[in-house]
Write a structure and sequence with these properties.
single chain, 11 helices, 14 strands, elongated
Length: 346
């Protein structure tokens, strides 16, 4: 199902999806009201969701779909307007799985890349199992189920840096973890989130507005300060360098990803050793697993999100299979665990 109020863009999306033999348009509607009224009959495998809609906007439509008829949702957003980016990030928080750039005219230089990314995301996300979300305002209520946890590795030295990584389902998971840290958290926090390059500034700005710690896009050469969150910029690797300085590189993708969780984790293993803490959250694929293993071998404490809370269990599962995760925790227990570790507790 395509939800887009602009007739021109809607027709363009129909054309883009129609070219892909893996996909079929079962409905193309111009408003959130139409989407909610027809989704029960059309039963799409995935929804392409515009954010700026007349009447019920894309955020509210996403919330209602996830509360009433859970369906994978891919947000199609204008990457330029700050307000649109903010709404897009909140749609991810409400249950949408990913956000991709809105296509422009077929004559535009970047059209083919955008069209390919839209189809790829729709096809991949159609296969992601989604769960019913509670009504507005309660999607952050958390889970009380306790997953089995392996014996945690004790960090021989006081931790000096925290590295977090996520992909599909990552923005709300990162907000949950970082938002649960104390406002005077004594470690710098380095973050890799797989997302289109055009959205990284907006993602960092959104995250800065929903957590207590200061958040910014990382800059090459700056020193990582305690209590500050540094997000990898679009299409660049974020690494920890000597003496706590950050490195931003355009080195080749690692496992098809740039920024890559494995690149970040390996750099933390090299320069922080047993004083590093690594956390791998929800995400599709296997990025981060081998890097987290390098961290564990260097004596760092490593954590993977438990299957019970991961939107997509691919990345954490890969780390667990490699024995890269010293501890496995559900999402709602990770922040408190990180806070204890920073204070020298188990």
């Amino acid at each position: 199902m395509l939800v887009e109020d602009s007739l021109v863009v809607r027709q363009l999306l129909i054309h883009i999806v129609g070219r892909d033999p893996r996909l079929e348009v079962v409905a193309a509607v111009a408003s959130g009201e139409e989407a909610l009224a027809t989704i029960g009959q059309t039963r799409p495998d995935v929804v392409s969701m515009d954010i700026r809609l007349p009447g019920i906007d894309g955020l509210e439509t996403t919330r209602r779909i996830m509360a009433e008829r859970p369906t994978p949702i891919v947000v199609i957003a204008d990457s330029i307007e700050d307000s649109s980016l903010r709404i897009s990030m909140n749609a991810l928080r409400a249950g949408a799985l990913s956000v991709v750039e809105k296509p422009v005219a077929t004559t535009h230089a970047g059209y083919d890349a955008v069209a390919t990314e839209i189809c790829t995301q729709l096809r991949i996300m159609a296969a992601v199992p989604v769960i019913r979300r509670r009504p507005i305002g309660s999607e952050w209520a958390g889970r009380t189920a306790v997953a089995p946890v392996s014996a945690a590795l004790r960090v021989p030295e006081a931790p000096s840096v925290l590295a977090l990584a996520a992909s599909t389902g990552g923005p709300p998971a990162l907000a949950r973890v970082i938002g649960g840290l104390p406002v005077r958290y004594p470690l710098p926090v380095l973050v890799v989130q797989h997302m289109g390059a055009a959205f990284m500034e907006g993602f960092a700005a959104w995250l800065n507005g929903v957590v207590g710690l200061a958040v910014s896009v990382a800059r090459d050469g700056e020193r990582a300060e305690a209590g500050h969150v540094y997000v990898a910029p679009g299409d660049r690797h974020l690494e920890l360098g000597p003496a706590g300085h950050l490195r931003i590189t355009d080195a080749a993708p690692v496992g098809g990803q740039r920024p890559a969780a494995t690149a970040l984790f390996r750099s933390v293993a090299r320069h922080a050793g047993g004083r590093g803490v690594g956390v791998l959250l929800t995400g599709m694929g296997e990025d981060g697993a081998t890097g987290l293993l390098d961290m564990r071998r260097a004596g760092a404490l490593t954590i993977a999100e438990d299957e019970s809370t991961a939107v997509v269990f691919g990345m954490p599962a890969a780390a667990i299979r490699l024995s890269a995760a010293g501890t496995v925790l559900p999402l709602d227990r990770i922040a408190a665990h990180l806070a204890r570790l920073a204070e020298g507790g188990p």
